[in-house]
Write a structure and sequence with these properties.
mainly alpha
């Protein structure tokens, strides 16, 4: 788009874009605040939709949460099928790690299965995080493991010490808490960490924060970071509200107990 504008060939660019059968765009949030890009994309979007072509757009947040995006684009994005892509499940994370191992100089069997499971359980926010954790373990093993044999569980935990918010005994992580609470209330994990303040989402979010504090004993600041960069005072207030509500409502307390049981299972 930028090059086409500089060279005075924007019409030719749009004509080419009108001819595609499928348009795939990643990180659409980066056009926020760019009026010229909005205008050009709006034109392309409408033309493709009118010609019954397929459009797939990816973003790190919902259309309504992208600041600086024109209302006409938000309405068009929202008219399609919106699907949240969550963090990979354990089995998927494990398969990804084994695939990464097979594509490296190592063999999948050269790392202990328990060590792989540790990485898959605690660094599954996304594929990049999985790969980064695996690379750190491999490097650590080369430098510090005394023998040249299979990479052990202890090597993995030592390599990743201080980077994982998890109790080694319980296997509970912030991601697991968010997943369990969101599923209990029929919400997405994105909604729990978003800025949305509707009552049902706020209630679930407060409970998730409370569980992070109770089960992981995380600092309020760290919990706030995990929930969309909220201030520590907001987290403190949420935890206090949950404590107070649990003492005044039997149904609320029962829900808390059920959620905690699910998280620990």
């Amino acid at each position: 788009v930028v090059n086409s504008i500089k060279m005075g060939k924007i019409d030719a660019f749009k004509k080419y874009m009108y001819s595609v059968d499928v348009l795939l765009i990643d990180d659409i949030q980066f056009i926020a605040g760019k009026e010229k890009s909005h205008e050009i994309f709006f034109s392309i979007f409408n033309e493709l939709v009118n010609n019954r072509k397929q459009i797939c757009i990816a973003s790190d947040r919902l259309p309504t949460e992208i600041k600086g995006l024109e209302d006409r684009l938000i309405s068009r994005f929202s008219s399609g099928l919106s699907v949240g892509i969550d963090s990979p499940e354990f089995e998927t994370s494990l398969a990804i790690l084994k695939m990464k191992m097979s594509n490296s100089a190592f063999e999948a069997r050269s790392i202990d299965e328990e060590a792989l499971a540790f990485i898959a359980s605690n660094f599954n926010r996304d594929v990049r995080q999985l790969e980064g954790a695996l690379n750190r373990v491999l490097f650590y093993a080369i430098e510090f493991q005394k023998d040249d044999g299979k990479i052990q569980f202890d090597t993995a935990t030592n390599a990743l010490r201080g980077q994982v918010l998890v109790s080694d005994k319980s296997g509970i992580t912030v991601r697991k808490i968010i997943k369990c609470v969101s599923e209990y209330y029929g919400l997405t994990k994105q909604q729990l960490t978003s800025k949305t303040r509707t009552k049902n989402i706020s209630t679930a979010r407060q409970i998730a924060m409370f569980m992070c504090r109770k089960l992981l004993d995380l600092p309020y600041i760290k919990i706030g970071e995990e929930f969309g960069g909220r201030d520590h005072s907001t987290v403190m207030s949420s935890c206090e509200k949950v404590e107070k509500q649990s003492k005044s409502s039997g149904a609320y307390l029962q829900a808390l107990n059920e959620i905690e049981k699910i998280i620990k299972s």
